[in-house]
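Input/output pair, single chain:
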Amino acid sequence: MKKLLFILLALSLFACKSNKKETQELEFAYQEKEIKPEMYYSEDVTFTNEKENFTLAGTLTLPSREGTFPAAVLITGSGTQNRNEEIMGHKPFLVLADHLTRNGIAVLRFDDRGAGESKGYNPDATTENFADDVEAAVNYLLSRNEIDKTKTGLIGHSEGGIIAPMLAAKSNDIAFIVLLAGPGIQGKDLLLMQTALIAKAMRTNDSIIEKSTAVNKHLYELVCNIDDPEEREKQATEYIKHYLSEIPPALKGGKTDEELVAGLLKEINNPFIVYLLRYNPAPTLEKVKCPVLALNGSKDLQVPSKVNLDAVKTALEKGGNTDFTVKELDGLNHLFQECDTGSPMEYGTIKQTFSPVALNEISKWILDKVK
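Output:
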C-alpha cells in the first residue's frame, strides 16, 4: 500500500472527474480532428433554470437549418464538466453530438452549472439539482420549431444515466432515454465495487482491498443510516481515528491524523456524496415507461457492466416496461473507448475518444425508435 486511504479512491473517481489535459505529444482523439460542423447547422444557445434563476449555455446542432428533427439532450457524468464532457484530453460529447447530428438527430449539449459559460455554481448541489438543469434544457429544446416534440429524448453518461430516468419517470415529453454506463445500483454498493475493481487493476494486495472495502462500507453505512449531520460526524470521526491508529506513519502520506480525519469528513459530509451514497436508481427506473437503451462496456471498472445491466433490466421489468434494450459492449471502458484494462489511469493514453461500435449502437437504436 503506497498511500493511505484507498477509501477516497471511489469518491474521487466517480464524483470528481478531471478536466486536466494530458501530454500533447500524443495525438489524442483522432475522431475530433475529423469533425466538420459546417456539414450541419450549429448554434450557441442559452436557456434558464427557472427554479434557481440562472443561465445555462450550450450548443445546439441540427442536421439542417430547415426541417423538423428528432432530438436528444446530452447529460454529462459526475464532476463539473463543459458541454463536450471534456476529460483527459478527450471530448466525448463533441464526438457523440457530431455523429448523431450527421445521422439526422438534433443534439443539445450544455456546460454544467459553474462550467464554461454556464452560471449557477453551487458547492452543495446534488444530482436532484442537476436534474433541474437538464429539465431546463429539455424545455428549451421543445421550444424550438426545428424539434419534433414527440421524438425528443435524453442520453446520460454515468451520473447522467441517473438523471435521465428521473425526468423520464415524471414527464410524458421524454420519448426515449439512453443510459451510457448509467447506474442501476445504489450508490454505496456501486462505490464499494468500483473501489475494489480499480484497486485490483492497480495490483493492490488483496488483503488491503479487503480492509479498505470494510472501512468504506462502515463509513458509507453511517452516511446512509444517520440523518443528523452532527451525530454522523461524531461517529465517523471516532471510527476514522480508530482506523488511523492502526496505520503506520509511513503510510499516511506525510499528513497528520487530524488532517486525514478532516479530509475524510469533508468528503462524506459533502451533500453530493451523501445523496449519491443514499440514492437507489431502481425505484425510479421502475417508473420509466418510454423506450430505454442501456449500454455498458465490458471493461468498465467504475460502473461494473454485468451486475449493473442486470440491475437495470430487473428494475425495468419490475415496472412493466417491455420496450428496452440492455447490451454489454465488448472491450470498452467507462468512457466507451476500446481499451486494455479499463482502468481510469488508462483513459488519457488512448487515442480513441468514443468507440464507433458504441456510436452506431446509439444512433441506430434512436433512429429505430423515432422512425
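Residues 1-26 have pLDDT under 50 and may be disordered. The radius of gyration is 21 Å.
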